[in-house]
Amino acid sequence: MENENKVGIARNSGRYSFTIKKSIVIVLAVATILTCCWLILGLMSSLDIPSNKNDQFASEQKWEVDQRSDIDSCDKQIMKNQIDLKRSDERQISERAFQTQILALLIIVLQLILIVFVVLIRWKPYSLQKTS
Were 48 and a residue from 57, 94, 122, 123 both cysteine, which residue would form a disulfide, CB within 3.0 to 4.6 Å? Predict the structure, then answer.
């Protein structure tokens, strides 16, 4: 009788342990998904979505610098180089933000697949498990 109680306790202990592990995996996956969503939304402002419009705006700024008569040609060239450098930096930041968002989206998909697998896994009763 005492042996049967121990087996019953072992079954319940294993079942609850499995359920707790399953819950922890799901909570961590959801936390990862939320973090990736926050990252994606946070990087939206760094994207250079109207890139043609921004390139045109930079060209207009350079044209305005060329039209100024109060500065010499050396200063004009420096100002145009600064405009080009700023535009180049904005493009690089946009590319990095886009790559980070793609990676975060991939992680979200993998976490969703993990959640589906964890939910579909069933606990095998102690009596059906193979013992070595």
Answer: 94
Q: What type of residue is 120? A: L
Token code pair at residue 28: 């961590």
Backbone angles phi and psi of 74, in degrees to 5: -65, -45
**75 alpha carbon, distance to own chain's centre:** 43
Q: What is the pTM of this model?
A: 0.69
Tokens of 54: 């921004």
- Determine contact, residues 22/121, Cβ cutoff 8 Å: yes
Tokens 């939320």 sit on residue? 34
Separation between Cα atoms, residue 59 and residue 80, nearest integer Å: 9
CA angle 28, 30, 115 (to 5 degrees): 85
Interval 39-95: pLDDT, tens? 999 999 888 877 778 888 888 888 888 888 888 888 888 988 998 999 999 899 999
- Closest of 19, 38, 44, 42 to residue 108, by C-alpha: 38
